[in-house]
Amino acid sequence: MFDEVVKESENRMEKVIERTKKEFSMVRTGRATPSILEGIKADYYGTPTPINQMAKISVPESRQLVIQPWDKNAIKPIEKAILKSDLGLNPNVDGDVIRLIIPQLTEERRKELVKVVRNKAEEQRVAVRNIRRDANEDLKEMENNGDISEDNYHRGLENVQELTNSYIEMIDELLEEKEAEIMEV
Fold first, then answer.
1. How confident is the model at residue 185 (pLDDT cuts 50, 70, 90)?
2. Dmax of the chain from CA atoms?
3. pLDDT digits over 33-47, tens only?
4. Contact at 8 Å (CB) between 27 and 178?
5. Count of Cβ atoms closer than 10 Å to residue 39 Cβ
6. Which residue from 20, 57, 99, 145 lies 20 to 30 Å from 67 (Cα-Cα)?
7. pTM of this prediction?
C-alpha cells in the first residue's frame, strides 16, 4: 500500500526532471540548438503557431540556425516573432530561408546565465522536496488510519527519501552539464 505512495512520488519527480530539461534547453548558450525557438509562436493566418510546426529547423554550423518554412508566406511572420522574442537574435532572410547567427556570449553574460540556471535548478529541487513532503504526509495519514504498520511507514519514509536524494542528484547533474555548456568558449 505504501508502494503506491512511493510510485506516485516517483512519477511526479520524473515530471520535475522533464521540466528541468525543458527549462534548461530554453536557456541560450553560445551554441545553436533548435530548442531555443521552442517557446516562440508566429502569427500564421491569425493563429499563434510554434515555429517548429511551420518550418524545418536545421543547424548547419555550431552557431547558426537555418529555418526553412514549408509555406513561403510564413517567412515574414516567423521573422517578426523572432524579433519580438527575448532571444535578442536578428533573423536574416535569405531567399526562402531565415538564418539566425548565434553570437558568442560575453563572460559577464555567461555568468548571468549560470545564475539563471542555478535558480531554475533550485526551484526544481524545491519541487522535489515538496513531493517528498506530500508523500510523507500521505504515509503518516495511512499509518494514523491503520492502513499501514509502523514498520511500513518507516520503510515508506526511507524509500521516499532515497527517491528524493536520487532525483535531486539528477537535477544537480543536469545543472553541472548546463553550466559547463554555458561556460565553454
1. low
2. 71
3. 888 888 789 988 888
4. yes
5. 13
6. 20
7. 0.70
